[in-house]
Each structure stands twice: as structure tokens, then as C-alpha cells.
Amino acid sequence: MSLKRFQLDQKYTALQHQHLDRHTQVIEQGVTPLVQRHGKSLINFSSNDYLGLASHPALKQATVDYLRLHSLGAGAAHLVTGHHAIHEQLEQRLAQVTGYPKAMLFSTGYMANLGVIDALMGQLTDSKSGIVYQDRLNHASLLDGARLAGVKLRRYPHLDVAQLNEWLNHDCTEQKLIVTDQIFSMDGTEAPLLDLIKTAEQHQAALMIDDAHGFGLRDFSRPPLPAVDVYMGTLGKAIGTFGAFVAGSELLIDYLKSRARPFVYTTATPPLIAAATLAALDVIEQESWRRVKLQQHIGRLRTALIEQGWQLLPSQSAIQPIIVGSAENALALSKKLLEQGLLVSAIRPPTVPRGTSRLRITLSAAHTDEHLSQLISALAVHQASFR
Ligand SMILES: *Cc1c(COP(=O)(O)O)cnc(C)c1O
């Protein structure tokens, strides 16, 4: 038995030389928006817990109540004996809040994206006859979905619907699937959804959106986003729990339940997570101040940083990157903020293009005005050295 021939030592040393080795950082304690690392309390500006629900008492209570009566683990895959009543109830609720006829749970967003793209494109009767079109900045799981499906992939420049149209005009293939993040993870920018819907209609292509960073942040009582063929949302970000779902027509969901391999061949998530997620959806409806607070923070931060002269991106979302250029600058700035108790991650190539290294700030309704003031004044001090 030996891994010797895989030359992991050389490969890993090469990674280290390129500063591409990655490490987990232990969070000793965390109640949004604070975390403790190395015994030091930090204000976290690098979390996806946009509404502060991950530590909400109602969600904790829902899991405790559920556990009193039921088992912890699902016990099996959904198609065997792992699909509990609370899973079913959550799927119906998710269909209702997103405005689609039907929804199904996946264990993670990553698996949902693999499952959908592979089920739609990888299992075509003639596997050569499909093309997946993706925004260049799409999430890795969407790209991996195309890889798993083994289908032809075309990546258009970020938000470039004109380029997409040109390809769609020229490509004569039967099944065309356009896939986009609704809000882009590293930029916070939004996909031109109406244009994409029009484009998909013109070319009889299907449209899938990944709303990982948007689901839960819109008012459920207002009309949802315009419907697309495949809607994917995650539950580990604004919702504060774990997992993901896909919503669409009844036929789509029935088909995916039979054919999406990352759904079929995995254990269902613990049902208590579904209980917590249902509680989160209630909280979102009842505590609309959380969305309002988040919007206020976004507006205030943008105004202050533009005034200070930082280069921002056209993002109206909770993701607010500051472009600083070199990886060194991004790292240095992140380190300085850390010394002041502010946790803001530096994002470097290959995650983002060379020369666009950035500080990626994410905001949460759980941040207080005072937390935001601390970040804004710290950045004001550092601005001079990065101009
Ligand atoms: C986080 C994220 C995912 C993955 O979701 P998980 O539930 O964390 O696996 C997929 N797509 C996008 C755009 C994301 O930001």
C-alpha cells in the first residue's frame, strides 16, 4: 500500500511555493457577528450569515423541540427511508415562498448544482448534442456540474449577454442550458435576469439560476424573482442553517428526484435541520427589520468607502469587495484590520483575476452600527497607504 507514486510531497511543496496551500482556521466560539480566534474576539465581516439567523434563538429552539420527539439522523437517503415529514413540509414551503410548483432538497448547494446539470445534460441520449453556457464568474460548483456531465461548456465574459446571444445564434445544438449565479460570490454583482430570460426564450434555451447569495434576502410577501426553468437556492447562507434546494416545474422536480445522482446516492440531511430552516423562514417573515438593517448597512458602507476613495464594484448586495490590486496589498490590509479586531478576508488569484485582489467585506443584519463604524474608521486610516 503506498501513495508514493502520487508524489504528494513535490506537489504540496509546489503549492506552498506558489502560496496556494490552504488551511482551516479554528473558530473557538462564534455568535454572529462575533467570532473568537486564538483567544481574541473579532468582528466577522467574512460570513454568509447575512441576516444573523445562524445563532437565532428561534432556530435553536426549533431543533431542540424537534429532537425531543424524533431521531437525530435521517437514517437513509431520501428515496429509501430518509425522507421525513419535516423534509416534505419544508419542500412545500420552499416551493411556496419561491413561487414554483415544486421544490426538492439537496444536502448542499454544491451537490444540487452537480445533480441538476448532470441530470439535464450528462444523461442526454446523444451526449454530444448539448452545450452549457455559463458566466465566467460562476461558482465552482456550476463549472464542476458541467465537468461531471462531460458536456461542452462555453463561458461568456461576466454579464456579457451580447456574447451569449452570438454563441446561441451560431451553435446548432438541440439542448442549450444557460446557467448563472444570481448574485456573484466574489463581486456581489447581479445577473441581468430579465435579459437572460429574453435570450433564453429567443433561442429556446433553458435557464438555471443559482441564488445562493440572494435567497432569503427578498421579501417573501412580495412577488418573487421572475420564474426561470431551474431555480437553485441554498440554506447555509442568509437562512443560517444548512443545505440547498431546487425549485421548478413538477416534471423537472420529479425527473431530478429519479436522476440527480447527488440526490439519489446520499443520506438525507438530519431532519432537525429542516425544522430549523422552517423556523428561519418564519423569522424572515416576522422580523423584516433584519432585511432593512442589512440594506442600511450596505448603503452606509458604500457611501463611506466611496467618499474615502476606495475602488468598489457595482454591487447592491451584502457582498462588498474593495479592489486593491496586488495580492500583497490585499493581504497586508487584511492583516492590519485583523490586528484591530476586524476579520475581513483577502481574496487573491486564482479565485479572482490577477491585479484584482480584493478585500471581500460581507455585511450582516447582526452587525451593529458601532461594528460598522469601527470598520469604516479603520479603513479611513489605511486608505492613504493604498491609494
Ligand atoms: C455557497 C455557494 C454554493 C454552494 O452551496 P453550499 O450549500 O455551501 O454547498 C453554490 N453556489 C454559490 C453561488 C454559492 O455561493
Automatic annotation (TrEMBL):
Gene3D superfamilies: Aspartate Aminotransferase, domain 1, Type I PLP-dependent aspartate aminotransferase-like (Major domain). InterPro entries: Aminotrans_II_pyridoxalP_BS, Aminotransferase_I/II_large, AON_synthase_class-II, AONS_Archaea/Proteobacteria, PyrdxlP-dep_Trfase, PyrdxlP-dep_Trfase_major, PyrdxlP-dep_Trfase_small. Residues 41-379 form the Aminotransferase class I/classII large domain. Its cofactor is pyridoxal 5'-phosphate. The modification N6-(pyridoxal phosphate)lysine is found at K237. It is an enzyme of class 2 (transferase). Pfam families: Aminotran_1_2. Its EC number is 2.3.1.47. It catalyses: 6-carboxyhexanoyl-[ACP] + L-alanine + H(+) = (8S)-8-amino-7-oxononanoate + holo-[ACP] + CO2. GO terms for biological process: biotin biosynthetic process. Homodimer. Belongs to the class-II pyridoxal-phosphate-dependent aminotransferase family. BioF subfamily. Catalyzes the decarboxylative condensation of pimeloyl-[acyl-carrier protein] and L-alanine to produce 8-amino-7-oxononanoate (AON), [acyl-carrier protein], and carbon dioxide. NCBIfam families: bioF. This is 8-amino-7-ketopelargonate synthase. It comes from Alkanindiges hydrocarboniclasticus.
